Request: fold
Amino acid sequence: MLLAYDGSPGAAEAIRGAATALGRRPAVVATVWEEGLATTPMLPSVEFGMAPGPVDVETAMEVDDAVHKHAERVAAEGATLAAQAGFEPTSAVAVADEANVAETLVHVADQRGAELIVLAIGHATGGLRARLLGSTVHAVLRHAHIPVMVVPPPTQERDPAPAP
Reply:
């Protein structure tokens, strides 16, 4: 089974919820990180008539290395959490984003022979942020060739019920 983990409370709850529902079984915890962030041109851009500034290759490599190491720590934290929740044996993998997070997770699940992908629903309450967070779940559901378990956020993070 592949457990997607980004360090958020919702992702931790998804791991605990999956362990409760599915019992002891092997799991891989995957954290996806964005490679090349330091070389991605930000404003100004040619769209606004200004060329992006020069990229310091050494700094870009240092940023990538730091982001990768952070992702490894997050994945290891998720594996510890998964082991505490009852998964066995658990392993952690930090994976560079290939195209987008959803496709990367599906690819890792395929590579690892996973029979299930476990994801958390983000806690955003509306607007663009909710659409972006939800888009990963929807894309995984569209692209996965195996079952996907989607766990809602912890009760305190859910949208409040409307007043009667």
Observations:
- Residues 25 and 87 are 5 Å apart (CA to CA).
